[in-house]
Design a protein that fits this description.
single chain, 264 residues, alpha/beta, D-Maltodextrin-Binding Protein, domain 2
Amino acid sequence: MFKPKFRLVLTGILSLSLLALAGCGNASAPTPAPAAPVEKILKVGSDIAYAPFEFMDEKQQPTGFDIELIKALGADMGYTKVNIETTAFDGLIPALQAGKYDAVISAMTITDKRAQSVQFSDKYFRAIQYIAMKKGSSFKTLEDLKGKSVGVQLSTTGQEVVEKVGIQPRKFDTTPDAMNDLLNGGVQAVVADGPVVLWFQAQKTNTEIVSVEANVEQEFYGIAMKLDNKDLGTKLNASLKKLKENGKYNEIYKKWFKVEAPKF
């Protein structure tokens, strides 16, 4: 009668000991560290030599109207960071197609030809071509430039409108390069987007450059994305619409152009 009782008591003691040890083990187990937040990065390409849309500030950081706009759009879409890299303008679309960027913002005019290669956002800026010249010149139309040396930025609509009237222009990597050549007497006129020409003039107040609107239709800029990236296109357009409605777009526009944003 004694042994069965002893075995029963012993079994109970061992069970309680094992439960106690298991409880001690749970109490001393380290608490798992919280998972690090995953960065959601929007990769953006731009030709950062086109003030006031995109250029490097005194700290060599990208700034300008386009830069502030894409950062605001990225934040509204939930991106934790917007990475902006510079590439020559004529290399932006190939780099986008190769997957180097998610989007391109670079004062890029929406055209039928470009729309065959990329998906454009809704238009975000209205512009027109200007003719820049030295004081004493009296060019008023593109036709007045026939027989003259004309500078343009490579692969821009400035080049297109000049060639359309039969002029073979001198092509430069950037519009400031073309404008500096105008200052130095290398070309007699430059055709480029109005805001860029006017910005250059404002920074060179001691020069003899003047400008007039060219006799061409107005243009609209768009943000380029890969043709098959419909999800990004939908989200970006929704954020652009939101920024126009809540006043953020106008705030950025007024900062860089000193006037209220036009309706279009």
